[in-house]
Amino acid sequence: MRRDVFQAIADPVRRDIIKILAKETHTVNAVAEKFDVSRPAISKHIRILNECGIVEINKKGRERYCQIKPQNLIPAFLWIEQYKSLWEDRIDSFEQYLNKLQSKTDK
């Protein structure tokens, strides 16, 4: 099965793994220790991230180190970015509406 970056970021656990690895490289076990999920489940999430090209796994001795490949998140970022102005406009409109309501209740 061919996976893509959108499958990778669709799961909240995988997003949390990306956040952890964005700060520094960790072993699979070190990543697993940060979750209340089984190590095999975390290994599966890491495998999916690896298949999507977001995480690279390097073996050093008996340990497997996970390193983020942030450039492979660019397609998702670019896709999301195209909707940024749409959401900003809606948030601005909502803020103006709330301010109008607030001014009515202050009178």
Mean pLDDT: 89
Over all CA atoms, what is the radius of gyration?
20 Å
Shape: elongated
Q: What is the number of domains?
A: 1
The percent range for strand residues is 5-15%
Major sheet details: 3 strands, antiparallel
- CATH uppermost class: Mainly Alpha
Could you tell me how far the N terminus lies from the C terminus, measured between alpha carbons in angstroms? 62 Å
Weakly predicted, low-confidence segments: none
Helix- and strand-based class? alpha+beta
Tally of helical segments: 6
**Order of neighbouring strands in the sheet with most strands:** 1-3-2
CATH superfamily: Winged helix-like DNA-binding domain superfamily/Winged helix DNA-binding domain
**Secondary structure: helix percent:** 55-70%
- Write the CATH fold name: Arc Repressor Mutant, subunit A
Total E-strand runs:
3
Summarize the helix and strand pattern as letters.
HHEHHEEHH
